[in-house]
Amino acid sequence: MAITTPAAVELRNLSKSFDGVIANAGVNLSVQPGSIHGVIGENGAGKSTAMKMLYGIYRPDSGAILINGKKCAWTSPAEAIAAGLGMVHQHFMLGGPFTAVDNIVLGTEPVRWGLIDRKKARARLEGLAQQYGLRVDWERPVGELPVGVQQRIEILKLLYRQATILILDEPTAVLTPQETNDLLRT
Q1: What is the pTM of this model?
Q2: From CA 147, how far away is CA 38, in angstroms rounded?
Q3: Comparing C-alpha atoms, which of 167, 175, 138, 170 is closest to residue 153?
Q4: Partners of 120 in the beta sheet?
Q5: What is the per-residue pLDDT across 10-25, written as a single tens digit (0 to 9) for each?
Q6: 110 falls in which pLDDT band (50, 70, 90)?
Q7: What letter would DSSP give residue 60?
Q8: CA 29 to CA 10: how far, in whole Å?
Q9: Which CA distances in Å does 174 have to 76, 104, 114, 156?
Q10: Which residues lie across from 12 on neighbouring strands?
Q11: Alpha-carbon span 120 to 104, nearest angstrom
Q12: What percent of the chain is modeled with pLDDT above 70?
């Protein structure tokens, strides 16, 4: 008998409406571990809504979300994050006046003797950046960095938190053609 690996992500018949307006009706999706999928459709088709249900921002009205074969009913994104999911939103969630390091480690700061250990955080981040080819200027305020670099910071934030499933909401919408090529190569 063959052993089958459960899907990393499975959406089963998810539905969501807002004030009687149907945003999603019967969404089904299965993503195998180690694979990359694109969800495509017209503006307003409900792609972002489906991903926000997967990430715990919205609760589905009906249907099921399974992560690695386990049924999950998030009450917040924190629960999705704890299960290994991470999401880069179409509109980045970064603090413009703060550095890349500060934005990435916020809420998960390594502490040594009661102080934030920036050296340890930066060393870990530099390792991740090198491993995934995500070059970043660590010390400039993120508001001064190009949009493509800001997106890398968002991705590094997920990797730093050890996300194993990455959700990228319209990842190429704000990128230049070269930045798009870089993202797809990564």
Answers
A1: 0.84
A2: 21
A3: 138
A4: none
A5: 999 999 999 999 999 9
A6: low
A7: -
A8: 5
A9: 27, 20, 39, 18
A10: 64
A11: 13
A12: 93
Phi, psi dihedral angles at 153 (to 5 degrees): -65, -40
Alpha-helical segments (H) within the chain: 47-54, 77-82, 100-105, 118-132, 147-160, 177-185
Nearest to 171 by CA among 37, 8, 77: 37
Cβ-count burial 19-55 (b if 16+ within 10 Å, e if not) = eeeebbeebebebeeeeeeebeeeeeebbbbbbbbbb
- Closest to 121 in 3D by CA, of 142, 96, 138, 141: 138
User: Residue 132 region, left (φ>0) first, then alpha (ψ -120 to 50), else beta?
Assistant: alpha
Q: What are 156-182's pLDDT values in tens digits?
A: 999 988 899 999 888 888 788 888 888
Please provide residue 54's backbone torsions phi and psi, each rounded to the nearest 5 degrees: -60, -35
Tokens of 90: 């179409």
Assign 3-class secondary structure to 1-46: CCCCCCCCEEEEEEEEEECCEEEEEEEEEEECCCCCCCCCCCCCCC
Which amino acid, 162?
A: Q
pLDDT, one tens digit per residue, over 38-47 is 888 888 889 9
Residues 6+ apart with CB under 8 A from 86: 157, 158, 159, 161, 163, 165, 166, 167
